[in-house]
Amino acid sequence: MSNTFGNCFKVTTFGESHGAAVGAVIDGFPPSIPISEKDIQPQLDRRRPGQSSISTQRNEADLVEILSGVENGLSLGTPITLVVKNKDKRPGDYAQDDTVPRPSHADYTYLMKYGIKADSGGGRASGRETIGRVAAGAAAEIFLRKNFGTEIVGFVSSVGKINAKGIDFNTVTRVMVDENPVRCPDLDAAKLMEELIHEVKNEGDSIGGVITCVCKGVPAGWGEPVFGKLEAALGAAMLSIPACKGFEIGSGFEGAAMRGSEHNDLFVRRDQRNMTDRSSPLRTLTNRSGGVQGGISNGELIYFRVPFKPAATISRDQKTADYQGNEIVLKSKGRHDPCVVHRAVPVVESMAALVLADMALGQAMRNYD
After folding, report:
1. Which of 71, 186, 288, 325 has its CA at 20 to 30 Å from residue 254's CA atom?
2. What's the CA gap between 259 and 249, in Å, rounded?
3. What is the mean pLDDT of residues 216-220?
4. Residue 255 lies in a domain
5. Ordered alpha helix ranges (H), the chain
6. What is the pLDDT of residue 73?
7. Cα–Cα distance between 302 and 324 in angstroms, integer?
């Protein structure tokens, strides 16, 4: 089903951008794990609109409610339903969309597929759909931290042509990432990125960027060979996020220009790296594989990069065509982000958490069998 993600840790998201509510149902969350709204809310606060002058000014608190699956602060092992009410809805901003498909939006393709589309906003194609993912991902992180000590940290590594430098994947934390509104731990680069976002916003335009995500404390052995590879699942998860246009893990495209003798990650005994994790007797001197070999985690840091296109809604006049093919000048209304990457950081982290939780439960079932 196109609205459901995962095999063992299943998440179904629901709701439209200007409907009554959005949210998610988690099926497969293990029992007796402490979980509450206050554990989930911090990630939703990082994703919500109106955080700063470089975000959309839609005014939403995005407060989560747990409707089922939790009692007395503990998970029951039954489906957990998470819901967030839409408060600041303005469907009237999208009246023109009934006759004109917005450039690079999903208006046209949804209409061609279903013969109908949401009248206001992007409906299920809106970035607001990601609220359900973030709520479910925050729950997945609770499970991963409790059972494996797994930590997931995403950050903005570029906006336009401005690139962050000198980020240590081993020591970067969410506290460091959240020190500025751009969510880039390189403070010098973050200042330039913020200035650029303000510049394109004032021009009625938008700009894209790249998010890097690091997953720490993932045990060796997660993932399936051939068609259930860990990096394939991560790639599918990231490419399902609105505005995401790519995925690369480890050395990525740069590795294609290297020779095997320089790209190979040589093994060493664990104690040669002074590592505290005793789950694997071996480590690698380098990590160009990005923590995954043969589709299976090897115990190293998992790291990957995902690019996001410029937001499709801009305030500039655009020459396009209506649904009958007539030329028209479109100037979009509504509230939008001039750059989405800083708000997409918790979305990327959450999708990574959903993949890892699914892999963890899948490995547990394999070991049980």
Report:
1. 186
2. 17
3. 95
4. no
5. 37-47, 107-114, 130-148, 174-177, 187-202, 230-239, 260-263, 341-368
6. 97
7. 48
d(CA 224, CA 221): 9
Cα gap 308→340, rounded to integer Å: 8
Q: What distance in Å separates the CA atoms of residue 18 and residue 299, rounded to the nearest whole number?
A: 43
For residues 13 and 133, the answer to whether their CB atoms sit within 8 Å is yes
Instruction: State mean pLDDT over 71-91.
Output: 89
Contact 161, 190 (CB under 8 A): no
pLDDT at 153: 98
Please give the DSSP secondary-structure letter assigned to residue 365: H
Region class of 43: left (phi > 0), else alpha (psi between -120 and 50), else beta: alpha
In this structure, the strands spanning 267-269 and 248-249 are unpaired
- Residue 337 included in any domain: yes
Decide if 35 is inside a domain: yes
Share of the chain above pLDDT 70, in %: 91
Mean pLDDT of 74-82: 98
**Residue 230 confidence class, pLDDT cut points 50, 70, 90:** very high
In a domain, 272, yes or no: no
How many Cα atoms sit within 13 Å of 6 on the Cβ side?
A: 29
Q: Looking at the 3D structure of the chain, how many domains does it have?
A: 1
- Nearest 5°: the CA angle 311, 110, 345 is 35
- CATH no. for residue 113? 3.60.150.10
% helix, strand, coil for the chain, step of 5? 35, 20, 45
Q: Which residue has the higher pLDDT, 330 or 308?
A: 308
- Helix (H) or strand (E) segment spanning residue 214: strand 209-216
Return the exposure string of 270-294: e unless at least 16 CB atoms fall within 10 Å of the residue's CB, then b. beeeeeeeeeeeebbeebebbbbbe
Contacts of 91 (CB under 8 A, 6+ apart): 18, 119, 120, 121
Amino acid 278: pLDDT: 46
∠ CA 189-195-198, rounded to 5°:
140
pLDDT at 57 over 50: yes
Overall pTM surpassing 0.90 (yes/no): yes
198 HSE (CA, 13 A, CB side): 10
Tell me the residue range of the domain where 68 lies.
4-250+289-368
